[in-house]
Amino acid sequence: MFDPVLLRTFLAVAETGSFTRAGQRLQLSQPTVSQHVRRLETQAGRILIDRDTRQVRLTDNGDAMAGFARSILAAHASAESYFSGKAMRGRLRFGAADDFTMTQLPRILRDFRALHPQLNLELTVGQSGALHRRLSSGQLDLIFIKQTPGTGEGTRVSTDQMVWMALDGIQLGPDEPVPLVSYQDPSMSRQMAIDALESAGRTWRITCNTREVNGVLSAVRAGLGVAVFPRTLIPGDLVKVSNRLGLPEIGDVDFTLIANPHSAADPVDALSSAIMGRTLVH
């Protein structure tokens, strides 16, 4: 049997990509984290982490162990909740900005559902502005959206840089109108792009209007133009072109959790903690 304490430590290393950050999450020293991982490797009889690289990388066996660890720890937590009478019940209406589906958020939600099987999680995916309006009207309990830094609303999970993204090799002359792939108005990234271009005195034209992140990515991959996108979320087949094309700086954006003050606190706090405690982008 695998020790849940060792599994929890190993999973923290896998999710944070660092022995130091795993120790900070679990309030353990780095030597203790390393010892736990070595003991788990001894129990498994396999090497789980590749130590020959500067970054922490899981081996194939490590990837397998991470999946087993999540299942085992979720089963432990569910059993504890069941027999202690503390199992969370009810409904949690959660909204997330659609580009967050490209992060570790789906896995976080899957693990959350395994941990709270009697809680009905309802997911709404959309644009940040629309989700905020639904929260304000009482249709959602918790939202995870992008906001301009300094709004002071909600809990900031992380900050990212908004940059110009395009297909590698795209060409654009300094006097040519910027071909803009954008979400339909109203859209935060659309407005940031237009404001930056107009402040820089650049002309622009909309080459694609879309409602979803997949539409933005498809249009950019087709070479229809450039789009404003969070830097850490740019897919591997697309690139940042801000400097190469001489495009203006956009600015930062906060990834923020905002709760409905009238919703049940326990489910909202539990999901908020699950998101805050995990690394969104590897």
Description:
With 282 residues, the protein is α/β, with parallel strands linked by helices. The chain has nine helices and eleven strands. Strands 3, 4, 5, 6, 9, 10 and 11 form a seven-stranded mixed beta sheet that branches. Strands 1-2 form a two-stranded antiparallel sheet. Strands 7-8 form a two-stranded parallel sheet. Helix 5 links the parallel strand 3 (90-97) and strand 4 (119-126). Helix 1 packs across helix 2 (19-26) and helix 1 packs across helix 3 (30-44). The chain is globular, with a radius of gyration of 22 Å. The model has no long low-confidence stretch (mean pLDDT 86).
List the helices and strands and how they pair.
Elements: H1 4-16, H2 19-26, H3 30-44, E1 49-50, E2 57-58, H4 60-84, E3 90-97, H5 105-115, E4 119-126, H6 128-136, E5 142-147, E6 155-167, E7 178-183, H7 188-199, E8 204-210, H8 213-221, E9 227-230, E10 238-240, E11 251-259, H9 265-276
Parallel strand pairs: 3-4, 3-5, 7-8
Antiparallel strand pairs: 1-2, 5-11, 6-9, 6-10, 6-11
Helix pairs in contact: 1-2, 1-3, 1-4, 2-3, 4-5
